[in-house]
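TL;DR need structure tokens for one chain.
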Amino acid sequence: MQSKIEDRESKILEWEVLPPEDRRRRLAAEPIFKWVALVMDRLIRIPGIQKRLGLNPILDLIPGFGDIAAAVVSVSVLIYGIRRGIPKILLGRMALNVLINEVVGIIPIVGSVFAFWFTANTRNYELLREHLDTPNRPSKSDKIFVGGVLGVVILVIVAGTIGTLLILYAIGKLIARA
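>> reply
TL;DR here they are.
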């Protein structure tokens, strides 16, 4: 009889050691990712083809500032995901999508076509949906990876802003001479 009680107590202790469930916090992040994916990648239906057009490729047509605006929206959603407890490694993969979209988006016209095809925000939403049930156990290397990728994304955004301002300054000087 005593062994049954000990066995029962160990089961109770086992349940007390498990981490609290944070699935609801991660589920709460899904609507914002879905909304951003819709607006940035799939807002307008194009007749005759199955692809949809969002604000991201349209913003990319504005040299410099369009790329920055799209990247800021995407990064702000990632920051929201951090606050909602999305696993760090997943956030790193999402940040990598944003980085790829931003780097290629710097190239005029090609960046817009790439953003239309790549749909980084939709990819990020799909990644989130696939991993909603993933346990949240980030390691130190996950955090370093995510920090590095987010650092590079922010560096590219800042460099793009500075480059755009320098180009606009040079154009302004040329116009003033004429």
